[in-house]
Queue: 4 jobs
Job 1
Amino acid sequence: MTHIITSLCVRDRGCIDVCPVECMIAGQPLNEWPWIYIDPDTCIDCGACVPECPFAAIFPEDEVPSAYTAKGGEYISNVGLTGHFEGTNHHGGPIVLDTTRQLEAGEVVDFTPDIQPNYDFFKTGPGYSAKDIDDGK
Ligand code: SF4
Ligand code: SF4
């Protein structure tokens, strides 16, 4: 199994530093790969990243919610969305995302479609080579 980052990720980057096997990679380019991605072949399911995420975006693969009830106000970031999000990450750097949408209170969201992109990122996407063009955003 692996852990999975869902579209609740807004690239705070707090999780990356704690991963003991360095298998969390910031997607690039942003409009195609807006999250941080976990290499499913390398993740050892230690769970260390989960409490580091201020947005509760990380789940064991078999616990990714199919019916997440939004508190309201949280952002999701996904390819094709057109909302704008600006914030500051764990290291004080800027976060600017243009692939976002803010959830409404009580809205129910299925995050299981977010599982496959984590595999695709490493199989057919940039994978670890994204580190070479990572600009910290
Ligand atoms: S800590 Fe959460 S929001 Fe931040 S990069 Fe990791 S998964 Fe994304
Ligand atoms: S569960 Fe552990 S090994 Fe897997 S991504 Fe999180 S910190 Fe890394």
Job 2
Amino acid sequence: MTAIDARQSNALIDERIKRLHAHGIVDLHFDLPMDLYEKRARSDVLRADFLADMRAGDIGVLGAAIYIEERYLVDSALRVGLDQVSRLYAEVEQSNEFAICRTHQEIVAAPEEGKIALLIALEGVEPLGDDPDLLRVFYELGVRLIGLTHARPNAAGSGGIFAPSGSSPKGLTPFGRELVRECERLGIIVDLAHINPAGFEEVVGLTTKPLVVSHTNTRRFYDIERNVSDEQIKMIGQRRGVIGVNSVLVSPRKEEATLDRYIDHIEHVAGLIGIDGVGIGFDFFEFIYAAWPEDKRQALAAKLAPPHFIPELRNHSHAPNVTRRLIERGFSDEQIEKILFRNWMRILRELL
Ligand SMILES: [Zn+2]
């Protein structure tokens, strides 16, 4: 290929990416509310710290996950959870570039007003303590996606650990089971990210609607109980669910944490349950991790696992790199649209 040919084919790919991003990308997991809470002394954080990257990456819908850091447990979990919701609403109001959405209709309407749709999620039910009535409160505040646990155990159940085995053999607690049933009744999407294998199976048995894993990787390439096994992927497929592929746990080896390995995870899920079962759950958190002091980073590495950030996939502005690599790997436009947008939109349409 001559230099001119290469430039022309590059321009064609750029055009194709632009076309594929016309509806906006759906990323169902981002630790946004906790960061807004930690930066509560500032204002207009959403615009100053995030908007440019999200616009550059054509992000259309974002799962904004409330997470309670260890130091607030257990006594302040509810207050900090509510404060995170409050910060999110205040920031959205100030920026005028986002819309907090509770229904599929609102999600569809957001881009028509030029806004990025936010879906509030809970990553771990610690803010509820062990009080099932509080679920209704968070529902009324707009929470539409709930994962019962992070890696640590709580009143609802236990998380999968960052090792090939050794998670709690126990499933959900009676409180956890009650929450799952109530989520389905209210119209909150149950998220299987992080839950331990026993809890995963139990949720599958307790529910009837499509199930999702908002952000995870496959054990095929990173064999830890926090990720999903082939068997679990098939369970999601049987329920017409979707698995969002995570950017931070693609490989235990730093040198293998590459964009191609990210696509390998997508291909693996699609190979097992079809292209309709795979979506995006980037889980970008390098900006949070980078701001931590060294001892906190080491504690995370010791307790969970050292994250290996993919050089070309570290924040939302890098989303077009995924699309480009999908094109280079031979995915069709129809397949790419499903991965980036249509599969999650089907779930949101059916469940919200
Ligand atoms: Zn997570």
Job 3
Amino acid sequence: MSFTADARIVSRALDRFRLQAARRHSPVVVQPPIEELVRQLDLDGHAARGGLSGRRLAAFLDCYLRSATRLHHPSYMAHQVAVPHPSGSLASMVDGFTNNAMAIYEMGPSAAAIELWVLNWMIRKVGWQPMPYPREGAGEAPHAGGVLTHGGSLANLTALLAARSAVAPEAWERGTPADLAVLAPAESHYSIARAVSILGLGSAAIVALEVDDAGRILPDRIPAALDRVRRSGRRPMALVANACSTALGLFDRLKEIGAVCREQGVWLHVDGAHGASALLSPGTRDLLDGVELADSLSWDAHKLLRTPTLCAAVLARDARRLDGAFQQEASYLFHDKAQPGVDFIHRAVECTKAGLGLRFYTVLAALGEEGLARYVQSRFELARAAYDWMQSLADFECPFAPQSNILCFRLRGDDSRQIAIRDTLIADGSFHLSTAEVHGRRFLRATFMNPDSSMDDVRAMVESIRLAAGRS
Ligand SMILES: Cc1ncc(COP(=O)(O)O)c(C=O)c1O
């Protein structure tokens, strides 16, 4: 069986999968027991026999797709994972086929060119100075820098590593000094706490910033917090702000926070893994007002930019700071070489790095910048419309006005009721929601990622929740 014939089988199966989901002809999620799936997929048999191709490939794929979660279904509202645009999915295939591990230029010049272009596109959105091409004199004029990473968690780790190297350049060789502290709101994504521990600071080095009722940093309390850190004999290594937070999707006030950090000489890292995409649309851009004051920013394309997993970026206002993050030597990779491009390996945790830029670039080129901006704005507007409508429902509580495409709410009742509702919806395959704990209370959480979800779906979701509550 030829590659082209198998590719046709795969593309037909995927198109059917997408269309059935988009037309609501299949459940949004099914979760058979894992041992049953191992058997149904005949994993032992295929591995022993080999030759998975043609009709057997088609049957295998049918079985695989039956228990694949359908992000293309308008009832998919669970997690912050992009509903991939088909152009991006094809790009993932091209990348998988060419397998250009492009961290060094010679392993993927096209992929490296796209990575540089994508990073500069993002850098311009932030309002920073883009990276010049190497032969234009990289490193001479101050400019921003970046690298694409396999996920926002690695982007956050890389940013904090750059912050550590700015504050304690000796740390790479001698280890992390014990007096460093990282200030962050408790609402920060767990990858921040992980990064702090991975960096050897220990999670006790995290100082919780004072926040408002919705978990947003109170900028006027930052100087006192910094003062307390310094008086306790510690050095602030970085302050982390959310754009936006994971649970509630709310944005910290970056302009005020940035001004305080500048004044106090503290590295500001903005975790924009989810919300930095609001920079695209004039209608949502203001949410990130002041982001240009940050020292570093994480931004995931595989969340709000319709890009298949993974494609994240870590950007730094001053490229030299990012270059300082790693000081590794590997003689077979890192050496002066006459080459017409750039290596990204110096800035990355990863050694083998996929051509991540292509999967985002093709989406951008398919939808156009305006199309992508309209998508982001429309998802934010849907969350707002759902919130406004829920205010009129006596049996629902929806206390936090959304600023993004994330909305938390609950059917009146206790925490276990919310969990039982979600489980029932998943079991009947009607809606895929997540939950989040806010102020010690469990909320249902809708993340409007699917471009086809509408208020009709929100109304149907509310009806399904009421039915599920009656049954659970
Ligand atoms: C604010 C924030 N930062 C970081 C991450 C981690 O990103 P990734 O899943 O790409 O590692 C998430 C994931 O949801 C997030 O919401």
Job 4
Amino acid sequence: MLAAILETVPSGQLVVCDDVTLREMTSGDVRIKIKHSGVCHSDLSVMNGTIPQEVPCVLGHEGAGIVLEVGDGVTHVVPGDHVVVAFAPPCGTCPFCTGRGQPNLCMTGMITMATSQQFLRGDTVVGSMTGCGTFAEETIVPGFAAIKIDGDVPLDVAALIGCGVTTGVGAAINTAKVSAGSSVCIIGAGGVGVAAIQGARIAGAADIVAVDLHEDKLDRAKDFGATHGVIPEDVPAALAEITGGEGFDFTLECIGTAGTMRQAFDLTRRGGTCCIVGVGRQEETFQLSAFEMFFSEKTLVGSMYGGADVRTDFNRFLRLYKAGSLDLEGMISRRIRLDEVNDAMGAMGDADIIRQVIDF
Ligand SMILES: [Zn+2]
Ligand SMILES: [Zn+2]
């Protein structure tokens, strides 16, 4: 079958080959025919070494498809079911998954996924990014990573739920807990930023300010619910106009650089919430003074996988899509075939791209 493999790191190219096979099924496995996979900025971050990953591996972690086969002990899905793949699924039994109510932080699920090696090329074992390997026509995942969805949801929009949409919408709703009538600033109006804007709108925010370097992205952000779109130089004026200079009730950083994380904290009002959604480099740091945390009483919170319980939130977000509250079709800027994936990587930063989706 066809798959796109990362052979070395750093690398600017994936190798698209047609001689990839799957290992044997074992108990607890689910084999999925991937119908669509989004191309996420994190795929590029693996290629350039920002996110560490063993190679060779099949990239892709934002996919949806149809169950082909289930291993012994799998009862929550059957062949023919439509599923979205979760890249950090809850094991269901550890403290994060039970008493703590933070299944998005389950280490058992994450490690199980990270060590999954479901592909073969000849005799060479090929792993996958976070166990998903959705840049392949078929994949095998542990059962708990295959989340059943309603059969009437188009699988192209469903794919987006697997990473970017859940990360952004979930950060606004679950992690930051944006409240009705509040003021929100979203730094970065790419795919995750657009999802966060929609999350803030769904939560009932009164003012949603999108900040980005590209004017085109700001215009587009307004289509998804931003009430204002400003370039960085115009942020002080927006802050004064909307908040009287106090700062925003909620600020969400959706880029992943130390500078914008510190900026997000500064733009948050006393007692407000600054939520870090972007994934930065391990060695980058930003400073907080030893006095300001006490005096400002701001909440600084990270958000991993949108603070979501994928077992319920995937379908919750898809209900919002069906109700017309969450625009997923509008987030698909470009549809490609798997052999165009390298071109898609190159186009990732383009102002007219929100999400590129592979059609298998
Ligand atoms: Zn992603
Ligand atoms: Zn767990």
